[in-house]
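Give me structure tokens for this 188-residue protein.
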Amino acid sequence: MTKNIMIVGVGGQGSLLASKILGHLLLNEGHDVKVSEVHGMSQRGGSVVTYVRFGDKVYSPIIDKGEADFIVSFEKLEAARYVEYLKKGGRIVVNTQEIDPMPVITGAAAYPENLIEKMKAKGIAVEAMDCLSLAEQAGSSKAVNLVLMGRLSRFFDMPEEKWLSAIEQCVPAKFVEMNKKAFALGRG
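Here you go.
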């Protein structure tokens, strides 16, 4: 059976590294894996979406609405924006950080309130955590992606060592320990 993970965020947050780590992990476990990156205006702080699909045989890298088992979101508004892609019984893992989109920055709109509560009120399983403070605790605000991967790892039946090995394969050596610490803080 194919499993689908969407990683959504804002340009420059590290979603591509997160998908690379997931891809390595799943390939190492013998899965057929397809990863597809869909860039919005990532250079301008716009949405970036990455699809990771895995299973015995995966034919397409694209995830349609109502098909995602997991949505991993670097930011609350991005989680809300893609919630319709979540399948019934799926789960959202989200950083509680708020990154203002352009309409909010320009004053044309206000940042929506109570997004997590609104998603939960619809019966959606939401794992919300302040990934930014945990990343800073690990040594870098840029490690939010590894905090999110740590939390996501709790829902996979794979030993932690396999995740750590994938991190070692994908992260430059000088950042491995800090990223492992961020992963551990996210895993909890």
